[in-house]
Specification:
By secondary structure, the chain is mostly beta strands. The protein is 10% helix and 42% strand. β2 (18-24) and β3 form a beta hairpin.
């Protein structure tokens, strides 16, 4: 078990209108972001799914070519490799949670490509008993 206190994590000034506190656990990466009204985040994309939970304020989030407005207590799931950006419609704070990128080097977890390959090779996942009914 790990314990963190956001009050003791130093905020990084990303721009003059954006601050971020970040931490990474064994299987999750979490950031708390604060944006002043009118501030935007640059478009970015992750290899894994990410969720955005608005704590206060209002954000317009653009994912690929779709837009949604999120307010306090609303959450959005951004699909893997889904390019997204945010615009603060009013001063806002929100939390993002995602799975960190696969580690590299000795003892590293398997890469997403390797995991996909193992999934495709696993016959038990793809077994379909109806495939044998063609002669009935």
């Amino acid at each position: 078990m790990k314990f963190w206190d956001w009050n003791h994590i130093k905020a990084e000034e990303v721009t003059s209108s954006q601050w971020r506190k970040s931490l990474e656990g064994d299987n999750l990466a979490v950031s708390m972001v604060e944006l002043l009204e009118g501030a935007t985040t640059p478009a970015e994309s992750r290899e894994t799914e990410q969720v955005i939970l608005v704590l206060q304020g209002a954000l317009r989030v653009r994912v690929r070519h779709e837009e949604v407005t999120l307010r306090a207590s609303q959450m959005l799931s951004v699909p893997p490799r889904g390019e997204y950006s945010c615009l603060a419609l009013e001063s806002s704070s929100f939390v993002t949670v995602s799975t960190p990128a696969a580690a590299s080097g000795a003892g590293a977890e398997e890469s997403p490509a390797s995991a996909a390959s193992n999934f495709l090779d696993d016959a038990s996942v793809h077994y379909d008993p109806d495939q044998y009914l063609w002669a009935v």
